[in-house]
Design goal:
This protein is α+β, with helices and mostly antiparallel strands and 124 residues long. Helix content is 27%, strand content 23%.
């Protein structure tokens, strides 16, 4: 007499667990440096949490009140919809350095001639 035959099982392939993104693309500058921070300790009267959205490259900064079940992806998409429609309130924390036309002309002339503007005047 023989024993019962075992059932053959194919080994299951282990797939990596997919995670939600945490860094997003900025709608203002296009850089992939926008982060979302949900502060669970700060709540308003309605029980909503405070979410802070900021861009590391251009300094875009915004605050929103979101439900407790929202993840950073949900906050980003809500902000993006409001930004595109023009309803989002935002500020810029970084200030861009303004360059005058004279400084720009000097930089171009130095870059072309290598030494200075004297060589360009002699050519004409």
């Amino acid at each position: 007499m023989g024993r019962r035959r075992r059932k053959y099982r194919k080994p299951q392939l282990l797939r990596p667990v997919r995670t939600l993104p945490t860094i997003f693309e900025c709608p203002h500058c296009g850089a992939r440096s926008m982060s979302v921070d949900i502060r669970k300790k700060e709540r308003n009267e309605a029980g909503l949490l405070k979410a802070i959205i900021r861009c590391g490259s251009c300094g875009l900064y915004s605050e929103m009140w979101v439900p407790e079940i929202f993840h950073p992806v949900d906050v980003y998409s809500k902000f993006l919809d409001a930004y595109i429609e023009g309803r989002a309130e935002y500020t810029f924390t970084k200030r861009e350095r303004k360059v005058s036309l004279e400084e720009l002309a000097e930089a171009e002339s130095v870059g072309k001639s290598g030494g200075g503007a004297e060589e360009e005047e002699g050519k004409w």
